[in-house]
């Protein structure tokens, strides 16, 4: 025990990590590593809630773990593990599912969006936020660093933790979301009204951590811009440039008003040219470490095995208490 508050967060192995994931979540996990007692999970069970290719899931899990290590997650200071390696997540998910209501799950925006237009909506997609709640409260996490899109799921998590505590007695910590004012919702480069997403069919809508420099230059050059020519932050009237300014500001660590001053009287194309270089420079050390890890996949697998062992110890102790509180299992022999 470190005495620090615990932070938990998860990421799905559904595709290449993009700069939205990085700026909205992963970068904050890394920056806050000394502040919290950290647990990060590659949530492969969540990645099964939409049709997927079984032969790809494992390689994506390793890819995402490599990206987290390359971005600076330090296994000495953080537990990093694969969700399905710790069975207690699914057990607690079931128990919380008996407390969650159909009405509240039906209201989840992510469920509505991801089920839209599909003929066959899996019950797993509906249950997705209950598994997420289990992930978090299983470890008594106090803080959940995520992007803006996860706010509603963390609110549901809080409701379920409180409901469990009220029904069965004080058992779980009720977590708080940690959503930063800047970068929590990086928008698509192709459509600034949609969030940048791994599952967007247009690969030019996102910049991935592994994109080579020329690819980054091309994607930034092609990114949609707003009418007018002024480099000014105005999310209402200039959503595309505002998004690019946010990306620039976070990668270069320069404030947005300062960037507006620097680019006053200069056009979009000069701004975009510099932005591409700022992203390339920011991603360069991560890409170098990714190459090193790709040459040594054993390191990643061993790190995940050790992380799962540490997570399992915490999870199994917690579930023994939960089972007892819920009246599950046999009474002890005297
Ligand atoms: P998918 O598109 O497959 O649903 P995703 O890109 O939303 O995936 P997740 O694995 O669901 O990625 O999310 C990992 C973390 O990244 C979460 O904390 C999420 O809030 C954050 N995140 C995802 N997209 C963005 C974005 N565009 N801007 C900021 N943060 C984001
Ligand atoms: N639902 C999240 C991924 C996720 C998560 C979690 C995030 C699963 N379990 C626990 C924080 C805490 C997403 O789609 N981004």
CATH-derived architecture of the largest domain: 3-Layer(aba) Sandwich
**Biggest sheet strand line-up:** 1-2-3
Helix content: 40-55%
Largest sheet: 3 strands, parallel
Round the mean pLDDT to the nearest integer and report it. Answer: 96
Strand content: 5-15%
Q: Look at the structure and name the CATH superfamily of the largest domain.
A: HUPs
Q: Segments where pLDDT lies below 50 for 5+ residues? A: none
Overall shape? globular
Query: Which class of the largest domain in CATH terms?
Result: Alpha Beta
Number of domains: 2
Number of helical regions: 12
How many strand elements? Answer: 5
How is the topology of this model organized?
Elements: E1 6-11, H1 19-31, E2 37-42, H2 54-71, E3 78-82, H3 88-97, H4 102-106, H5 109-115, H6 123-137, E4 143-145, H7 151-168, E5 176-178, H8 213-222, H9 239-252, H10 256-262, H11 268-294, H12 297-326
Helix pairs in contact: 2-11, 2-12, 3-6, 6-7, 8-11, 9-11
L-tryptophanamide binds at residues 8-10, 12, 43, 46, 132, 135-136, 144, 146, 150, 153.
Structure described in brief:
The protein is mainly alpha-helical and 334 residues long. The protein is built from 12 helices and 5 strands.
Kindly describe this structure.
The structure is a single chain. By secondary structure, the protein is mainly alpha-helical. The protein has two domains: 6-178 and 297-326, HUPs (Rossmann fold); 203-292, Tyrosyl-Transfer RNA Synthetase, CATH 1.10.240.10. 52% of the residues lie in helices and 7% in strands. It has twelve helices and five strands. The strands form two sheets. A three-stranded parallel beta sheet has the order 1-2-3. Strand 1 (6-11), helix 1 and strand 2 form a beta-alpha-beta unit. The protein starts with 5 loop residues before the first strand and ends in an 8-residue tail after the last helix. Bound molecules: adenosine-5'-triphosphate and L-tryptophanamide. L-tryptophanamide binds next to strand 1 and helix 6.
């Amino acid at each position: 025990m470190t005495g620090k508050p615990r932070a938990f967060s998860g990421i799905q192995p559904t595709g290449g990590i993009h700069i939205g994931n990085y700026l909205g979540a992963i970068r904050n996990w890394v920056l806050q590593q000394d502040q919290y007692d950290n647990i990060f999970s590659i949530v492969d069970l969540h990645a099964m809630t939409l049709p997927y290719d079984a032969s790809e899931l494992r390689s994506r899990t390793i890819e995402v773990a490599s990206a987290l290590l390359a971005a600076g997650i330090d296994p000495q200071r953080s537990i990093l593990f694969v969700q399905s390696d710790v069975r207690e997540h699914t057990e607690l998910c079931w128990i919380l599912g008996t407390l969650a209501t159909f009405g509240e799950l039906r209201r989840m925006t992510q469920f509505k969006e991801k089920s839209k237009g599909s003929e066959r909506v899996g019950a797993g997609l509906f249950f997705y936020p209950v598994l997420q709640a289990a992930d978090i409260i299983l470890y008594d996490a106090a803080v959940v660093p995520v992007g803006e899109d996860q706010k509603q799921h963390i609110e549901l998590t809080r409701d379920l933790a409180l409901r469990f505590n009220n029904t069965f007695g004080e058992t779980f910590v009720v977590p708080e979301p940690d959503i930063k004012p800047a970068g929590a919702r990086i928008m698509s480069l192709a459509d600034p009204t949609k969030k940048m997403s791994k599952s967007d069919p247009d690969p030019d809508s996102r910049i991935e951590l592994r994109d080579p420099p020329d690819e980054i230059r091309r994607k930034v050059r092609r990114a949609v811009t707003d009418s007018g020519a002024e480099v000014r932050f105005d999310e209402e009237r200039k959503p595309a440039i505002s998004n690019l300014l946010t990306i620039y500001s976070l990668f270069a660590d320069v404030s947005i008003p300062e960037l507006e001053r620097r680019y006053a009287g200069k056009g979009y194309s000069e701004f975009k040219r510099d932005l591409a270089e700022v992203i390339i420079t920011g991603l360069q050390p991560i890409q170098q470490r990714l190459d090193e890890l790709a040459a040594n996949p054993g390191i990643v697998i061993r790190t995940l095995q050790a992380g799962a062992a540490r997570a399992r110890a915490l999870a199994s102790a917690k579930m023994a208490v939960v089972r007892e509180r819920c009246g599950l299992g046999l009474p002890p022999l005297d």
